[in-house]
Every structure is written in C-alpha cells, then in structure tokens.
Amino acid sequence: MRYALMFGPEANAFLFANSGLFTVREAFDVLVPVNGETALIASDGAAHKHRRRLVQPAFHRRRVDGYIARMAENADALIDTWRPGETVDVYAVLREVTRRTTVQLLFGDRLAADEDLLAGELQTLLDGIDRPYSQLVALRSVPNPFWRKVLQARTTVLDRLMREIADRRMDPTPRHDVLGLLLDSRDEDGGGLTDVELQDQAISLMAAGYETTSAALGWAVHLMLTTEGVWERARAEVGDAPPTAESLPAFTYLGHVVDEVLRLRPPVVMSARRVAEDFEFQRYRVPAGTMLLYSPYVTHRMPELWPEPGEFRPDRWDPDSPLHRPATPATFLPFGGGQHRCIGSVLALTGIKVTLARLLARTDLVHDGAPVTPRSITAMRPREGVHVLVKEVRPA
C-alpha cells in the first residue's frame, strides 16, 4: 500500500477543505467489524451527511448541559470511596467511572447498571480495535481465538442494546439520553435511523466516548500534579460547589489546562483518509488509492506554531501571555476536523472539565513520582497508569 504523510497546518487545512478528494470507508476498514458498516467514522458522502444530521441533535450544547449534574454525581461517588493515605491509580478508576457515565448518558441507567456488560463484553470489544493497523489486518485475515472473542462480544453488546430498544418502543415514555433522542430523530422527509444504523452508532459512540475521554483525564491529572502551581491555581478557581451549566464556562484557567492537555497529549495521535482521486499539494502529486495520514500530535508539537512545544504551559492559552498563539482548526485539532470532526467533542470536553472540577474541589493528591509514558495510537493513554497518594478527601 502506498502511503502519504501530510503534516502541518497547511496540509490539515487542505485536507479538511477538500473532503471530496478523500474517503474514510477504506481508511477505517479495519474498524468496520467492530464499529459497523454504517458508523459515522466509516461513512462517506450523502450517507454520512444523512446520519450525522440525525445524530447531531443529541450532542448539541444545550443537551450536554443537562448531563453536567450526572457527571458530577458519578465523580463524587468515586471520590467517596477514597481514603487519605491510600495510593490510587487515578487513570484506571477514572476510566471505569467514565465508561459508566458514558453508557448512562448514551443509553440509560439500565444498561449502565449491567456491570457484566460494561466490564466484560464492552471492554473486550474495545480492546479489539486497540491494535496497530497491520495487526488488525492480520487478525481479520485468518481465523483466530482473539478475533472470534471480539466478534462474539459485539454480538452480546448488540443483543443487549436491541432488548433496550425493544423495551423503549413498547413504552413511549420520553427518555432524555442519547438513545432516546436517536430513536426520535427524524430528517426533513420524516425518516429516521434504521435498526442497523442505531446499532452501529451506539457501538461507535461507546467506543469513542470513553476511551479518549478517560485517556485525557489521566494525562490531565498527571500533568497538573507534576507542573508546579497548576493544581493549586485551578483549585482556587473552581471552589467547592459542583459545577453547573452556568459556572463551568467561567472556569477560564481550567479551560486553559484542558486545552493544553489536549495539545500536548491528544488522545488520537493520527488519523487517515484514502485518496479517491489524484491531487497535487505543494508540488507533490498524490495518486488515487494512496493512504493519507495526518497527525494532531505532530501539528501540536511544531515549534513554529507552539513556542516551547514539549512543555506543559496552560498560560499559553491566555491572550496576554507571551507564549500565546491564536489556535485555528488547522493548528489545534484534538478532535479532527472538517466534515468528520468528532461529533461528541462538546460532550467529551464537558466531561473532562466536570470531573477535574470535582477532583480539585474535593481532593488533595500527590503524584508518586513514577515516570508516565504513552501507549497506543487509537487512544494514547498512560502506559502504566497514573499513581497518586490521596492526602485529603473533603465532603461533597
């Protein structure tokens, strides 16, 4: 297979502005057995526009604002289990609570209460796509126990989801989670998502909704505790009260922290497109059939765009800082860009900020000093977790 690597803001802008030159179906072909044929991540053209239009209302900011209280409650429930003096892998436990919260918000309390589904089959399913591209190709090409287990996990998750859908169709009581909105969503012709489309969107939203969010949370705690003054300054800003839709936007410094985490450690290291027709870019001719790779990680560490690019500097997002550079969709792209920008970006950002706000308000933590290194490119996360000493837990 022929590859082309297009890195940097000019390349990103060209890619996002010329979506007709590329397809995503072939680029993400290895994810289709898990995410499904009709998932947004693997949809192109009119089909993608149609499905995105039906899914988008579930992720509007006003909808997400209604989830803030539940996010805070789940973070508080986790913190309530901690005791001063104990050591916690904060990435691991935040991963669990993020998974539970994601399923609650997407598909309701009944699915979220099914711990066997959450901790077993769903995790097996997600592990199935957390492999390098060449390994995924190989695993699909020959019969093997691992891939059979992944496909069986998908069947189990979908069976459980379809039982939930059937129950809701029998009981027309309005539900305000994402599944309820997807079931009710209609286009201008009165058509909605088919059962297959519902299944595929559900699986792909679950996969995208918690792996990347929990990875960002793990990096945030690590970077905030290992950079002098950051935790204390953010703590002073958020105060003690649980965040609300009105107060969360006022946490300016916390917003800078989250942006800087996503710049330095973007969960999605790189992404891909398949070239549908020949094109030229900066004197290079790229033929159809080429696999094109672009990288948020590379862009976010370019010194010509970001002074001191390898350093964690939340103040660079303050317009008054000498390190400040205005971010654009081509220079700051933790959620991708163009027509395929992550549809759940507002939900993810809100979840990260709410969870961090509760940690700041209720805990004093000390990093254990162990080095933290990244692993994986599908959701770059701390390899051995983030281990902290709990010094204090304050009541909610």
UniProtKB/TrEMBL annotation:
Pfam families: p450. Its cofactor is heme. Keywords: Heme, Iron, Metal-binding, Monooxygenase, Oxidoreductase. It comes from the Bacteria. Belongs to the cytochrome P450 family. PANTHER family: CYTOCHROME P450, CYTOCHROME P450 12A4, MITOCHONDRIAL-RELATED. This is Cytochrome P450. It comes from Actinocorallia libanotica.
